[in-house]
Amino acid sequence: MLRLIIVDDEYLLRQLIRNIIDWKALDIEVVGEMASAELAMRQLESLKPDIILTDICMPDIDGLTFAEKIKGRNPDTKVIAITGYDNFEYAKRGICIGLDGYILKPINEEELTECIVKIKKKILEENRKRNEIETLSIFKREAEEIVKNYYLTKLLESDVPEKIVNSQLMEELALETSPMVWIVVFQWKTNLIAKRTGNEELLDCEMWIVNYCKEKLKKMVWVHGTANRLIILDPEKDIMPETILKQLQEEWKKEFECPLYYGTEVIYNQEKSIHEGYIEAVNQLNIELVNGENKPEDIWRWKQQKKETKQLWDLNELKRLQYCVEAEDLEEVEKVIDSYFLKWKDVTLDDMELLQVQLLNIYFYFYTSFGDRCIDAVAMQYMNFYENVKHAENILELKNAFLIGCQALQEMLRGRETAADSYKLIYSMKQYIKENLDDPDFSLGALAKAYYMNSSYLSRFFKEKVKSSFVEYLTEQRIDKAKQLLQYGNFKIYEVGEKVGIYNANYFGILFKKKVGVTPAEYRKQYEK
User: Fold this and answer.
1) Could you count the other beta carbons within 10 Å of the beta carbon of residue 430?
2) Which of 32, 140, 212, 338 is the most exposed place for a label (fewest CB within 10 A)?
3) Beta carbons of 262 and 299 less than 8 angstroms apart
4) Quick one: signal sequence residues (predicted)?
5) Residue 338 pLDDT > 70, yes or no?
């Protein structure tokens, strides 16, 4: 219920106002009656009224001065003045103060009811709009996190052929201009966490690491990557990565009683791209997953092996395998895998370790290539593949594990829809467009800036998800809103055009007839009948 107080120095008038109408029927509660403005001011904080009925002429503080103080403290509170003076000077001052209504003495039941109902509608409409704005604001902040995560993932996991990451976002993150960027990729075994707790959701491992790193790093950015991997980037110099990581591992073991794996890389003076640095960090992580510990000598040995061997997967072979998996051609997948494993004969233990890491890298490469088509199942499937590769005792078992992993990828790709985040992002964009229909300068560029996107990329993304170009969708929404205004409002035709962002009346008329089939005036007449 809305809350109302009555302020008047005449007791009988206060009683009349309380009893003359059924306040409960109007869904309004009279929460207080005061004989003076001074007394009312002292109780405003505790009573929190939505509406104040106040007499103009009172002995201590007159009603207009009282209203001015109220509006200064809380502009949303509605003030209705009661006066026996039908005086223009009072009315003029009341307008400047921002009074919401006048009631002339002697008070008439119908006039008071009409005024209160009008004010109530105004309050409810303002509350509705405020709630909509707050909801959209919250949703927008959530969407911004999705956008940031999405494009940082692109920056990390793809050698992007065009700059799809908006420069505004990159300037905020300061990753491409910093003299040093530290990249860390974390992974843990959720099955061990679940075994200890009985439920893997009881402990939020990712946020534990994020909160720990926030205490140590000033400019840290974190990304939830594919395969349930947490990625930390920090463009701050004068840090000691290895010291921080060792301390973090020790604290993690105390908390979760299981290993925490990581791969790390430091880029100095843009000597390589963020993507290249990330790939190095992933390679180190995969080495650790195979060997079990972060040992610099293992990483160095693996890099030497990688340089010396000629048996690593050729990029053309890798692309061919990727296309076969996407095309669900299992027979061709088997041929490519057979051809590759024929190169591995008389393998040593070191060879097995090298091949395990190579296969983990290939499998992870597939996930980054397939994108959000199978993002929801990435973590579980990747860990299943890791377990099969890790426990393979010979080259045949390793080959079978890889084949089974590729089959699982095909199953995930079959019938998969776009990730929920894309739908959430598009919904937020549609709401943002709706809020800006009256802006004649609203454009694809404005939407791209609001969502940290490159305009050309947003154009393709929007058309793919909405099945309509941005301009077509914006026009449709403007025409739909114009139809509502013509049907239910009393605006002139040119005013309707302005309210939907089209200030040229002739163009508005032509566009409306093209989309609806009749002119705006003809459309309105249909509903007047």
Assistant:
1) 14
2) 338
3) no
4) none
5) yes
